[in-house]
Amino acid sequence: MNPQQRRQSICEQVERKGVCAYEELSALLGVCSMTIRRDVDQLAREGLVIKTLGGIQRAAEASLYESDLLARLMTCRPQKRHIAREALRLVQPRQTLFLDGGTTCLELAKLLAAGDGGLTVVTNSAQACMELGRGKGNMTVGIGGQYDAASASFVGPTAEESAARFFVDVAFMSTKGLIPDEGTFESAIATFRIKQIIARQAGRVVLLADHTKFNQRALSKVLDISQLHVVITDSGALDSDLARLRRNVKQVVIAEELPNPSSDEVSCAH
After folding, report:
1. Are the beta carbons of 140 and 123 closer than 8 angstroms?
2. pTM (predicted TM-score)
3. Residue 62 to residues 13, 69, 84, 155, 252, Cα–Cα distance (Å)
4. What tens digit of pLDDT does each residue of 104-137 get?
5. Which of 109, 134, 215, 234 could disulfide-pair with 128, CB 3.0 to 4.6 Å?
C-alpha cells in the first residue's frame, strides 16, 4: 500500500468512526506509528483531519464529502491541484464562471475562494458552493434540482431548466474520460446534461483532466472535441496523446509540478 492509498484508508476510517488512535491505525494498516503520524501530518495540512492527543478526529471539511467523493478527491490530488492552479491563471476580474462537481473543479473552487473576489460563479455542485462560501468576495449562484449523492450535485429537469438561463464567460469542466480526437465521456447520465447545456452557452469551455482520463471511453459522449477551447492536464500525459489533442484543441496547457514537492505526495499511476 503506497502513501496515497494509506491516506485514503485513514480518511475512510476516521469518516466512519469520527475519531481514531494512532496505534489503532498502525495495526489496521500494518505500518509503524511514525509512518501513520507522517500521513496524518499531511492530511492535517490538507484540512482533511484534525490532530488530537494520541490520534485524529474527523475534520469539518472531510465530513462534508460523501465517502466515494472523498475517495475521488484523494486520487491524483497533487496533479489536480497543479491543474487547478493553471486554471486560475485563465480567470479574469469580474468574469462569470461555471464549475461542475468534478474533484479538480473543487480544487479550483478553493483557490477562487481564497482570491480577491469580484467573480460570479455558477455551479450545480453542492460541494463547490460550500468551498466558494469560505470566501467573501465572490457571488455564488447555485443551480438547484434533484440531489445526486454520488456527485454531490443537483441534476434533473429543474436543474437543466435553470442551467439554460445562464450564459457564462468561462465554463470549467471535468470528465470521466477523454478521447483526444473525439471528445469527453461520462458514465453518470444524470450529470452530463447540465454540462452539455452550459457548454453551448459559454464563451470558453476549459476542460480540467488529469492524465488518467485520457483514452477512457465511458457510457455516453458528452462534449465533442470541437467544443473545447482549452484543455489543462498534467505532465503525466503521453506525448502521443498530447499531439492528437493539439490537432483538435486550440490551447493545451501542461500543469507543471511545483519545485520541491512534498516527498509524501505520490502521483497516480498512468
Report:
1. yes
2. 0.74
3. 12, 10, 19, 23, 32
4. 999 999 999 988 889 999 999 999 999 998 888 8
5. 109
